[in-house]
Amino acid sequence: MADVTLRNVRKQFGTFVALEKLDIDIRSGEFVALLGPSGCGKSTTLRMLAGLEFPTSGEISIGGRVVNDVAPGKRDIAMVFQSYALYPHMTVGENIEYPLKKRGVKATERKAAVLRAAEMLQLEPLLDRKPKQLSGGQQQRVALGRALVRDPQVFLLDEPLSNLDAKLRSYMRAELIELHRRLGKTMVYVTHDQLEAMTMASRIAVMFDGRLQQFDTPAAVYNRPANRFVASFIGTPSMNQLEGAVDGSTFRVAGHAIPIDRSRFVHALGSGTFVLGVRPEFVTIGGGDLPARIRLVENTGHEQIVTLELTDGTRLLARTDAARRLDVGQSVQIGFHPDALHLFAPEETGRRLNKDDAASVIPMRSR
Amino acid sequence: MQSPLRTLILNLVTWTLVLLIAFPLLWMIITSVKPQTELFRIPPTWFPETITFEHYWRLLSETPFLTYFRNSVVLASTTTLFVVCLGTLGAYSLVRFRYRGRETLAMLVLFTYLLPSVVLIIPLYLMMVAIGLSNTLVSLILAHTTFALPYALWLLRSFMEGIPEDLESAALVDGASRMGAFRDIILPQLLPGIISTALFTFILSWNEYLYALVLVNSDSVAPLTTGVMSMLISTFNIEWSLLMAASVMMSLPLIIVFAFLQSYLTSGFGAGGVKG
After folding, report:
1. Class for domain B66-220, per CATH?
2. Domain A234-366 annotated CATH 2.60.120.200
């Protein structure tokens, strides 16, 4: 077991800055997800932890040991690749055995360890097959087996589920959570799928444009997003963001004034443009005084996602019960749950201006 | 739907081509087993009335054919070994490492391949003389390596590019050194590429005539191509029966090599455990 620390890490490829001032502290035994859109630097971060890339500056340590100059094989880590990277000319058994072989483990011990790993992942009947004879899910398990066979301090997983179909993915998600619980090892998991991050991780590091945006628990990332980017990236459908101006204790948008509680936000708001954020589940249809028209109703069976259009053409989403009868083209009055409002500075990664904890968890029932 | 006429014409063309290519080979074999008396008979006999192996026997017992043969085997195998070793390491460097002038270097290597060999042969000869290697098998091995290597490098490079980098990264994380990963993972994956490169180089070196003619002039180090020619073809006489027997024996190693490796060449492709 080991904690993993990135201290002021910077990575540059030629003139392109892939990562800037990255500080992450991962506690021993934690399951941390590095989450962000493609090109945000999350995979580079993982490859640096593995020793496949080297930081331009900064310090990386695993288990209290600075590993900047330590070869990948000597870091006591294991990695699962997005492509699985199974050695095509070796059987499943040989694939799982390879890391042990490279560490000079005796043949009899190797056999026992391979069998143990195979049993844990239900791979015993496949040990003599070649990777190309396996299904995607089976290949995935072999890659996991190869990672856990030698009991490393830290597991690094690079989008391991992204090549699986939806059903298998949710099954493997549960398997991975279970595996983490059983092994209790530090795991760092790269994904662009916020659902994976939210359901699996104990903490999520949200990254964008080579910078860490927020590093916190799933609940905190969802309820108290640090900035506009996090707010829009976490949650499906994502948070509604309305541009407007703060005027006394109202927020003006589309010619209407939405009452806001000034005490919930930082004092020195000043004037100018701001962005009001509200999650779709806190938009009430027929409960406010903002006129809107229903543009689209998507019924998923257990809920409806409703696209609404304000008088100035701004669109926003609301989430309602599936049973409620709503028609496209219908004019409605909408409102926002007053405790669920977020205020952001207008830039793309504009800071959240709530006094913290203000928009705490609001039970879905009360919307 | 194909019309019967189209099928007929296609078949006709194909078989004409096959016959055109196969006939000289067939005639070579037939001539090599005909007795001397039957050789120039008109009209010619399609199938020899008596089959004899006396030409083969004479070639092996009375001429330096076996010396030439040995020289050719040594020459082609050593060249192949050199080219495969250098080509594999070179291709690995070109594909995996990032350094200044990498692409230029690769283009430059190919550029030497564009020059006709006659242009290179005099400088090469003078160089061989200068370093005291003229008229040795080593000089031919070096010369053949210089003209087979550029193509081999490009061939191996494209095979190498087909091997996902993740495989190597995985091996590194699994505890292998760079050379270890190269040996355990890259080489087995590259095998089809190595085999086709080796085949190409071996054939090129085995059949090469011009360099052998210029760089080597004594019987003891001459390969088959120049040795057999100078031995059997003189200004006044061509020993057809011996020449044909020699030709059959010269072709045999290539046919054997091909027969064994052909299946290897095709089966290696498309194997892969990487999805996505």
Report:
1. mainly alpha
2. no
Task: Give the pairing of strands A77-80 and A154-158.
Answer: parallel
- B92-147 pLDDT, tens digit each: 999 988 888 888 888 888 787 777 878 888 888 999 999 998 889 999 999 999 88
Question: From CA A34, how far away is CA A31, in angstroms rounded?
Answer: 10
CA distance A17 to chain B (A): 18
Assess B164–A contact: CB distance below 8 Å, yes or no.
yes
C-alpha dist (Å) from residue A317 to A241, A264, A300: 10, 24, 14
Every domain of chain B and the residues it spans: 66-220
Q: Give the residue from chain A lying closest to B177, CA to CA.
A: A73
The model's pLDDT over B187-235, given as tens digits with 9 standing for 90+, comes to: 999 988 898 889 889 989 999 999 999 898 888 899 999 988 888 877 6
A193-221 burial: b if 16+ Cβ within 10 Å, else e? bbebbbebbebbbbbbbbbbbbbbebebb
DSSP letter for each residue of A33-97: EEE-STTSSHHHHHHHHHTSS--SEEEEEETTEE-TTS-GGGS-EEEE-TT----TTS-HHHHHH
Task: State the 10-residue block means of pLDDT for chain A, 367 residues long.
Answer: 90 91 94 94 94 94 93 93 93 95 92 92 92 91 91 92 86 90 93 93 95 94 93 92 87 85 77 88 88 93 93 91 90 90 88 70 44
**Cis amide bond preceding A346, omega within 30:** no
Query: What is the Cα Rg of chain A in Å?
Result: 24
CA distance A76 to chain B (A): 9
- Please judge whether A52 and B175 are an interchain contact, meaning their C-beta atoms are less than 8 angstroms apart: no
Shortest alpha-carbon distance between residue B99 and chain A (Å): 12
Determine the average pLDDT of the residues in B65-91. Answer: 94
- Domain edges within chain A: 4-228, 234-366
> What is the interface size between A and B, counted as CB pairs within 8 Å?
88
- Report how far residue B17's alpha carbon sits from residue B34's, in angstroms, rounded to the nearest whole number: 26
Name chain A contacts of B194, Cβ cutoff 8 Å. none
Specify burial of residue A328 (Cβ count, 10 A radius: 0-12, 13-18, 19+): exposed
Domain A4-228 has CATH 2.160.10.10: no
Residue of A326, A319, A250 whose CA lies nearest to A278: A319
| Element of type H or E holding A180 | helix A166-183
